[in-house]
Every structure is written in C-alpha cells, then in structure tokens.
Amino acid sequence: MVTHISTRYFICLDIDKEKLKKVQTIINKKLENDFKLRLNPKTHIGKLKDGLDFLGFRFILQNNKLYLKIRTMIKKRFKKKVKKLTKLSKNNHKYSKVLESVHASYYGHLKEGNTYYLYKKIVKKYHLKDYMRNI
Q1: What are the DSSP calls for 5-54, one per residue?
Q2: Deepest of 8, 72, 96, 106, by most Cβ within 10 A of its Cβ?
Q3: Is the pTM of this model over 0.85?
Q4: pLDDT tens digits, residue range 75-88?
C-alpha cells in the first residue's frame, strides 16, 4: 500500500481551453479519489502567448514557435556567482574547482533553452571552458 506520493509539477498544453478544463476535472477527481489529494488553488489555465514561468525558464509562444528564455533572476545569479568565483580562483586554486562545478551546473540548465548567445557571452567575458564549442 502506498502511503505517500509527491508530485511537484506538471503542465498540460492544448489549444482547446474547454478540453483543458475537462482534463483538470479528471485529474482533480483522480487525485481526490485515489490519493486523497487536491490540486493547488494556484492551478490555472492560461494562454501560452502570455508566457509561462516553469523550472527556471520563461516559455513564450511567438509566431507559432515556442521559445525557452532563461529567467532574469537565474541569469543574474549565474553571472554574479561566476564573477565572484573568477576573482577568488585567481588567488586560491581550490575555487577553480568550485567555479568549474558551478559552470557545469548552469551549463546543464542553460543548454535546455534558447540561451546560446547568453552562454557564449559569459564564457568569453570570464574566460571559461566552452562546453558548447563541440555542438
């Protein structure tokens, strides 16, 4: 018997708003009947052209094309960390390994979106290893 189930995020996309409302009702019933759970009251059906923040990206639909742009705070945090660690690594070699780890982590996140030029700009500015050069 399952005593605890945790699902944090999910997204349903469709062009038919009524269909999404039906899907939401089905999901709600399933959660309540089988797991004694409810959807968060913040659950919302909206238009993708208005944009959607999810997992550090801003999903934007423009000209029938979906773009994943990195959220501004993620971008600022990455630049701030790289700048700080670059300065520290000049005086202490142990920070070079930390910088490499932070760089690899953010690269793993950035590569999923439309962030090629942002990544190249940061790599060039801080003289980092360019993981995208082989792509």
Answers
A1: ----------S-HHHHHHHHHHHHHHIIIIIS----TT-----GGG-EEE
A2: 106
A3: no
A4: 999 999 999 999 99
